[in-house]
Amino acid sequence: MAGPGRIWLTRSRPGAEADAAALAALGHAPLIDPVLEIVPVPVTVDLEPVAAVAVTSAAAVRALAALTPRRDRPLFAVGAATAAAARAAGFEEVDAGDEADGDGGGGDAAALAARLVRAAPPDRSPWPVLWPRGREVAADLAALAFALAPGRVEIRPVVVYAAEPRRPDAALAAVAAGQVAAVLLHSPRGARAAAAALQAAGLPPPPAIALSPAVAAAWPGPVLAVAARPDAAALRDALGRAHADALGKPRPRV
Q1: Is the pTM of this model over 0.85?
Q2: How far is the C-alpha of 180 from the C-alpha of 171, rounded, in Å?
Q3: Residues 22-42: pLDDT tens digits?
């Protein structure tokens, strides 16, 4: 990573704001300019027929909370950020597994499916679980659960939000001025959206720090580091390692 410069945060708010605060505390200069905009989908949601809710993103939690006042179903979250959003929205019983933050990359969807299969009561098959999700997802929770135990869990998907591409004008201007040292990428779709915006502007992709190998594979430019785990803290650790390597400093301990 070439010297001092801004770190482009491509994920949507409010997640990007939490990342920016953490990066600023570490001495980085964050630039929040999302490449995807979260748009709610007006849909009717009924929790009465289901026994539980499974969520694979914090955006899904916020969209679901706006669609129903009910908070009385157990909610299984993909990780810590999603669980925190669920608790903030008032859900009474939240299961986050090992609290790994899987938002954005879909890396913990398989673990979430396994938790649902384990939680399903043996005397109630199939166990109905609502899956509020985005229009596009990195992993199919229903297929994962079915592959583990056919007929044990009935995942009922409902699209509650869409992530629409947006033009990141501030980031494009910063890249053109040579002010961006690296870009943080949280999902394959986000990586593709950022790459498309850069290509449309005739700009080369800056070095990236990727949340997972799948995210790295979606980026056409150089990838400096890949997070050891699909969570925000590991992504920041990867940025720290890349920065230390560039400056010849000792790497921070993970």
Answers
A1: no
A2: 8
A3: 888 888 899 999 999 999 999
